[in-house]
# Entry
Amino acid sequence: MDLEHRILEKIRYRVYEVLDLQGQQSYDYQHVRSVERLSDEMAKRRGLNSDVAQTIALLHDMGRITENVIGKEHGIVGSRLAYRWLTDYDIEEPIKQTIVDAVAKHNKKKQIDGPYDELIKDCDALAHELEIGEYLPKYEQIRCEQAYKLFFKMVMMDLDEIDRIFQEKWTALFVVLKNMDEKTLDTKQVHTIRTEIRTLRAMIWLLRGYQSKGVKNLDQFLKEVFIDLEQSRKLSVFRKSLKKAESSNKLIEQVTRLIQQENKKMIRKISKRMLKQEKVLNKDNFGLKAIPHQDALAIKYKIQEDIKNDYVSLLKTVSIKNLKSLHKLRIFGKKFLYLAESGIFSFLDEQDGQLYSNIHKTVGGLNDIKENKDLLKQFMKKKSISLKKKEMERLLTYYEMETSRLNQEMKWMLFMMKKRFN
# Structure
């Protein structure tokens, strides 16, 4: 996308004719100059056309400056003015539309748009940071933090190494499952087992279509064991929420007894599965890698690209108002997160890994609150626990406050993740 440099010079002259009337020390003069300089620099960093970027920068606030329009509408008013000015020059229609669209969207800092739209938003935010510092709105703060970062990038381990880690993890988990004891089993061990199952299943998912014989049966077995562990986890999370809501010791003790009862049932279920599956599990080949050596590198890069594209597609559909869409994003993210924690994937920017982790925890927190409420209904219906009215009110108030806090955090994190991938 090219714009003749002489046209940029004419537009610059025209804009500064307006700005000079306000004086070179005025806010508008200094702001436009700052955004123009930043746009030139940022366009070169991002591989965009500098002349187009600077033209957008020069025109982005002209609606506010010439028409005295402030607030949400100044971008739209500015885009109309930009279109009128640009028709005075011989500019190709796609370039003209790119400039006009970017001016129209430049103050919509909460949404992610095209590359030139994002460039002017980021440069406008960076200029605002210089001008008002700590008083910058949250989304502009995030834009400033992300503006100079490289795009999201991950690196995947070689397939031979992934298969080795898989074999080690499965062998270790098999021993743990075989030796589960209700006397020593606690919340931490349940969480560790579930994490290892998730990691193994994520590896199977990662190399779907490239697995050795027996992996499909193993995946089904791991899924069943994971479901067996689910109720114990739910009860433990519920007990944790009771403590945070400062519920009575009597109520917490009741839930602790329910966890102990559930663990006994759970261990019996898993022991039966182990006896039933042990012969099959020891007989089958559970290698992940069934790929000719010469194809391994090409497949590795294809998997990396496919995963990134799949995640970007999910990000486009996710909504903070739709818990199901958030949960779907989390399920995908969980697989990726556990693979990263096992060293199978690494992030070129370690903050990307932290962002994945934070999204995972935040959506998990929202899911836990929903599950806690469902458990409450079950307990009240079956009279499994005795819950006084004051304790119920305290617990529901705690859930409402946590939901509000987590939703706000999720908005910022989703925005940041979309920004990183964009």
In short: The mean pLDDT is 88.
